[in-house]
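Example 228, ligand zinc ion.
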Amino acid sequence: MSPVLELYERKFVVGPFQCNCRLLACPTTGEAVLVDAGDEAGKILKGLQGVEVAPGVPLQLKYLFHTHGHLDHIAATREVKKETGGTAKIALHKEDEPLYANLKMQGQMFGIRYDDPAPVDLYFEHEQTLKVGKLKFTIVHTPGHSPGSVCIRLHEDSQAGSKETLFSGDTLFQGSVGRTDLWGANQEQMFKNIKTRILTLDEDIRVCPGHGPDTRVGVEKRSNPFLT
Ligand SMILES: [Zn+2]
Ligand SMILES: [Zn+2]
């Protein structure tokens, strides 16, 4: 029997806000997604350079996914797309387009200069599924932290069985939840979405937030002080 290939995964912690940017690649085809290219394009590009997900299988970046449009999740997208050949599709929920398009203005609030972002290629829809090699992603619209905040479910099927991971952006963190004092935020809506669209998932699912350490659905359900 051939060895069971696992998801190829790498995390880059980037920028002054320490955003978790993640590379997720199909172990069979090398097709890949980068989630939240938030800053430090050079560090991310260096991390992508020459990667082989398996011997002789080079990385092919297909998508640049964004959990939402805050600067710390989008600021390196333009450069990463350009420097990886320009073919990766930029994906975001349409309701965060006003944030995304105003990257420059978001930067000015912190005294950081940015170029205008590259155009969005694909708008996420609630319950949309996207296949990347053998990886299957499902978009869960969870507005509240921002109008277009999404969580991204990843389903992996391998000989070892199926596994699921949830990329929760700035909606749910280990022991905390997203802030709701910024443009377009809605606290009531965020709590409702966490309860109905995240905590209803299988308790064993690994949750990878946009900042800080990973957790599990069941752990947050039982011990997150904002949710109990
Ligand atoms: Zn945010
Ligand atoms: Zn953030």
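Summary: The CA atoms of residues 195 and 227 lie 8 Å apart.
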